[in-house]
Design brief:
Keywords: Membrane, Transmembrane, Transmembrane helix. This protein is mainly α and 268 residues long. The protein has 11 helices and 2 strands. The protein has 2 domains: 107 residues, no CATH class; 156 residues, no CATH class. Helix 1 runs antiparallel to helix 5 and helix 6 runs antiparallel to helix 7.
């Protein structure tokens, strides 16, 4: 392994280290993909649970469940490859995130490394919470959207389209739950104060509801509110936490002097 502490590292060594860490990450993704390939059927069952178990609960009196299908000769194989690759990326996330962290960390100052580590440790459970909430409301989202199916008409849905819908919903929820953490990070590096974060709180609440209305794939207010309320709570929590940081920083002049979001030209 290349030593980077205590001195600068030649460009070729940077490239070699990047190559080695990329190869390790690819090996981890491949191993995770193999696991996803083996457990393909259980993963499919987990994904289709919100969809009335592949339409098994469909009754002649209700149009709220459609039928999932795979099209084409290569459709089943392509779907299994897609599920395996997605599983590989998710299962190997600790490995490739660590490789990314190990490659970037030596270039950061001690305070920046501490902030980045806290950010990663808090962002992961927040993203997982948002993703879990998305999975919980998924049956309601599917039920509402399929409720627009006209009477006397069926609804055939390609599974790859359904999978993209599920992934988009999970990503939107997960990323949205991490947004307030960026405000705290900006406060820690001295870009935003707690007062600056909380001052436009009315606009922030409006933007939370606007964001959920735009990106939540269901037109009903219930789903929008389920996402908007936690976002508003996280926003106010980030503002209050930033105020506490500012108060502590104001009592310690040394801490206040350490806050320098932009390096001076002579330090670059």
């Amino acid at each position: 392994m290349f030593k980077r502490r205590g001195g600068n590292m030649p460009l070729l060594d940077h490239i070699r280290e990047f190559r080695d860490r990329l190869i390790k990450s690819l090996f981890a993704v491949t191993a995770g993909a193999v696991v996803g390939w083996i457990f393909y059927q259980p993963i499919i069952r987990l994904l289709t649970l919100p969809f009335c178990d592949l339409g098994s609960e469909t009754s002649p009196k209700s149009n709220n469940c459609g039928d999932l299908y795979v099209s084409g000769i290569l459709g089943p194989f392509n779907l299994q490859v897609k599920i395996a690759l997605l599983s590989g990326v998710i299962l190997s996330a600790p490995v490739w995130l660590y490789q990314m962290w190990a490659f970037i960390t030596p270039a950061l100052h001690k305070k920046e490394r501490r902030i980045a580590l806290i950010f990663v440790c808090v962002a992961s459970p927040l993203f997982a919470t948002g993703a879990f909430l998305a999975y919980l409301i998924l049956p309601h989202a599917v039920n509402v959207l399929l409720g627009f199916t006209p009477n006397n008409l069926g609804n055939l849905i390609r599974f790859d389209e359904y999978l993209d819908f599920v992934l988009r919903l999970i990503l939107v929820f997960g990323i949205a739950f991490d947004l307030p953490l960026f405000l705290v990070a900006l406060n820690l590096i001295g870009v935003l104060s707690g007062k600056a974060i909380l001052k436009p709180w009315r606009l922030a609440v409006f933007l939370c509801f606007l964001f959920t209305a735009a990106f939540t794939p269901t037109p009903d207010p219930v789903t929008m509110t389920l996402l908007a309320i936690p976002l508003c709570f996280l926003y106010f929590a980030s503002g209050i936490f930033s105020l506490l940081i500012d108060k502590k920083r104001s009592r310690d002049p040394n801490k206040q002097a350490e806050v320098s979001p932009i390096d001076k030209p002579e330090r670059i």
